[in-house]
């Protein structure tokens, strides 16, 4: 029991990997599947609503087309000027009896022919033009229906109240036409008045459509779905079940005046209710389908996907456990090898022969063991070489001092023989060498820097035919400012080599402290630079990636080095400006903002 407890308290690497895999893969999968199941309810409902809207929109297009055809027929009679003229003429005849003249015959023929033509394009409809004097025109036989019965209709009073181009949509009625009453028991009509310029009624137009034309459109392949056409009062005008026509819609309380899709409870079941309002007469299309039926196909797909994922991940975890056992078996062997190495046994070797990462680790472990003994000897050799390097460093520190002492002895001997120029030259060389080799001080005062420059100019004058006259103007505060060592020497060298171009010359070096800035001015009377060369030189040290060198002016490499060292040394960003003209020399102006009391101490290292 104690052993089992310890194993539980300190699980193996294999158990940890399997548990981590379950946490990183299994739990997210279970959460995703649960979340997926939860979200599919909304997705199913949304998809069912989209399908219902798509279906009712398609029905709406077909129903609207038929009803618009009825309205267009009634509009045509009102708008056509030729027919209007004939009808107004006939309405003014108070007798209402047909005239037997040829002209009257042609006018009647024109009206009847026009009625037949405008009803041939769309669905079959019955057109009645009824004048106030009792005269009428129809596209059907009066044996089917007497047009004079229109005066007795309940809605006729409402028809006389409409104005302008308005139409009266008559709800569902029993079919009045004798030949269609058996197969088409209901009809729908649209009526409008015919008025003269004084807005007086001289006639009426009634266009009638058999309800079965609408019912055929409302037929649906899904027997569970019911689509109805209802009027403003939720009276059923058309539906698949003819027994419901003319009755009030049972769920009328749940209808709205807007196009909506919603889930309702009806007959103790959930139903999907979709409403689509017609755009021109206030009627609406209503779709009612059981929710379970609406979502059955979508739910079936989601259920299959969920089942497939669940089975797949169950198989995955079984395979994971089996593979994890085989994969981690070599790790147990490596664990034993490492423990033996910890005891100091460097003769042991790992025997994993696979070519995967564990095999590579095994070979690396063997190589590591083989190198341990060699590394011990390598450490001894490294310590020995380190002591030798320290001795060489000590010797390197002694050699410069020996060199300076020898140069000083030579200078004294030369001076003893009266060669002052050579003695001064050796002294200047010794000072320059000492300043170059000295690694202990990166920062020196302006006074010391100018002293080194003086020695440099002196050496240059000794080694070349043409002499350079160095003029120095310094105020006392500027001489104490600390600047990087050899920061001005490249500028003096450029003036001598490029500015004078193997001719005599003068260099003015001025330093002063003013308004918290150290100003350094180096001015020569050399050959100068043209504007194009000057622009390239200025760009080269501001953007040191551009390497440019002119024989007529400054070395951009030296300028870039000076500019970069100034910016690295001083935190307040110094500036360097170059001015030059052909034949008038070159002037370099450096301004270094000072900190605190105006004396930059710098980092002496």
UniProtKB/TrEMBL annotation:
<keyword id="KW-0597">Phosphoprotein</keyword>
<keyword id="KW-1003">Cell membrane</keyword>
<dbReference type="InterPro" id="IPR010559">
    <property type="entry name" value="Sig_transdc_His_kin_internal"/>
</dbReference>
<feature type="coiled-coil region">
    <location>
        <begin position="365"/>
        <end position="399"/>
    </location>
</feature>
<dbReference type="InterPro" id="IPR005467">
    <property type="entry name" value="His_kinase_dom"/>
</dbReference>
<feature type="transmembrane region" description="Helical">
    <location>
        <begin position="305"/>
        <end position="324"/>
    </location>
</feature>
<dbReference type="Pfam" id="PF06580">
    <property type="entry name" value="His_kinase"/>
</dbReference>
<dbReference type="GO" id="GO:0005524">
    <property type="term" value="F:ATP binding"/>
</dbReference>
<keyword id="KW-1133">Transmembrane helix</keyword>
<feature type="domain" description="HAMP">
    <location>
        <begin position="325"/>
        <end position="377"/>
    </location>
</feature>
<feature type="domain" description="Histidine kinase">
    <location>
        <begin position="487"/>
        <end position="596"/>
    </location>
</feature>
<dbReference type="GO" id="GO:0000155">
    <property type="term" value="F:phosphorelay sensor kinase activity"/>
</dbReference>
<keyword id="KW-0902">Two-component regulatory system</keyword>
<keyword id="KW-0808">Transferase</keyword>
<dbReference type="InterPro" id="IPR050640">
    <property type="entry name" value="Bact_2-comp_sensor_kinase"/>
</dbReference>
<dbReference type="GO" id="GO:0005886">
    <property type="term" value="C:plasma membrane"/>
</dbReference>
<keyword id="KW-0175">Coiled coil</keyword>
<keyword id="KW-0418">Kinase</keyword>
<keyword id="KW-0472">Membrane</keyword>
<dbReference type="InterPro" id="IPR036890">
    <property type="entry name" value="HATPase_C_sf"/>
</dbReference>
<keyword id="KW-0812">Transmembrane</keyword>
<dbReference type="Pfam" id="PF02518">
    <property type="entry name" value="HATPase_c"/>
</dbReference>
<keyword id="KW-0547">Nucleotide-binding</keyword>
<dbReference type="InterPro" id="IPR003594">
    <property type="entry name" value="HATPase_dom"/>
</dbReference>
<dbReference type="Pfam" id="PF00672">
    <property type="entry name" value="HAMP"/>
</dbReference>
<dbReference type="InterPro" id="IPR003660">
    <property type="entry name" value="HAMP_dom"/>
</dbReference>
<keyword id="KW-0067">ATP-binding</keyword>
<protein>
    <recommendedName>
        <fullName>histidine kinase</fullName>
        <ecNumber>2.7.13.3</ecNumber>
    </recommendedName>
</protein>
């Amino acid at each position: 029991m104690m052993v089992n407890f310890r194993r539980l308290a300190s699980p193996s690497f294999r158990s940890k990997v399997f548990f981590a895999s379950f946490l990183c893969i299994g739990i997210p999968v279970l959460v995703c599947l649960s979340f997926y199941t939860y979200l599919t309810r909304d997705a199913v409902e949304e998809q069912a609503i989209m399908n219902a809207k798509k279906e009712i929109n398609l029905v709406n297009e077909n129903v609207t087309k038929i009803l618009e055809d009825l309205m267009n027929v009634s509009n045509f009679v009102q708008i056509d000027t030729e027919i209007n003229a004939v009808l107004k003429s006939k309405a003014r005849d108070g007798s209402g009896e047909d005239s037997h003249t040829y002209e009257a015959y042609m006018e009647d023929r024109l009206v009847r022919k026009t009625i037949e033509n405008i009803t041939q394009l769309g669905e079959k409809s019955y057109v009645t033009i009824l004048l106030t004097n009792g005269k009428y025109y129809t596209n059907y036989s009066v044996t089917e229906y007497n047009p004079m019965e229109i005066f007795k209709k309940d809605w006729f009073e409402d028809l006389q109240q409409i104005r302008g181009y308005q139409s009266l949509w008559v709800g569902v009625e029993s079919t009045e036409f004798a030949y269609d009453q058996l197969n088409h028991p209901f009809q729908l009509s649209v009526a409008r008045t015919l008025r003269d310029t004084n807005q007086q009624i001289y006639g009426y137009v009634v266009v009638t459509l058999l309800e079965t034309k609408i019912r055929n459109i409302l037929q649906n392949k899904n027997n569970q779905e019911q689509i109805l056409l209802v009027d403003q009062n939720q009276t059923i005008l058309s539906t698949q079940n003819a027994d419901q026509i003319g009755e009030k819609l049972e769920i009328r309380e749940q209808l709205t005046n807007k196009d909506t899709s919603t889930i309702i409870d009806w007959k103790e079941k959930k139903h999907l209710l979709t409403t689509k309002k017609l755009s021109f007469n206030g009627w609406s299309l209503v779709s009612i389908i059981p929710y379970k039926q609406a979502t059955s196909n979508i739910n079936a797909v989601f259920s299959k996907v969920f089942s497939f994922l669940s089975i797949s991940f169950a198989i995955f975890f079984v395979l994971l456990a089996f593979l994890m056992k085989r994969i981690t078996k070599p790790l147990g062997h490596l664990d034993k090898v490492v423990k033996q190495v910890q005891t100091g046994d460097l003769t042991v070797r790992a025997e994993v022969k696979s070519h995967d990462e564990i095999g590579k680790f095994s070979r690396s472990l063997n190589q590591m063991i083989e190198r341990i003994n060699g590394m011990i000897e390598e450490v001894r050799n490294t310590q020995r070489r380190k002591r030798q390097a320290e001795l060489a460093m000590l010797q390197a520190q002694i050699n410069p001092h020996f060199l300076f002492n020898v140069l000083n002895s030579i200078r004294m001997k030369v001076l003893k023989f009266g060669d002052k120029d050579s003695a001064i030259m050796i002294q200047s060389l010794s000072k320059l060498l000492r300043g170059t080799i000295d690694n202990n001080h990166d920062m020196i005062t302006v006074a010391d820097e100018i002293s080194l420059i003086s020695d440099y100019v002196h050496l240059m004058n000794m080694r070349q035919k043409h002499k350079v006259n160095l003029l120095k103007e310094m105020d006392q505060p500027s001489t104490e400012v600390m600047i990087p060592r050899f920061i001005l020497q490249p500028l003096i060298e450029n003036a001598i080599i490029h500015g004078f171009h193997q001719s005599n010359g003068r260099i003015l070096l001025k330093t002063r402290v003013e308004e918290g800035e150290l100003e350094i001015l180096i001015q020569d009377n050399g050959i100068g630079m043209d504007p194009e060369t000057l622009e390239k030189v200025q760009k080269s040290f501001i953007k040191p990636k551009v390497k440019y060198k002119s024989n007529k002016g400054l070395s951009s490499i030296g300028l870039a080095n000076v500019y970069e060292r100034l910016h690295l040394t001083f935190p307040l960003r110094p500036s360097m400006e170059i001015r030059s003209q052909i034949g008038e020399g070159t002037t370099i102006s450096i301004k270094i903002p000072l900190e605190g009391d105006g004396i930059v101490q710098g980092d002496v290292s």
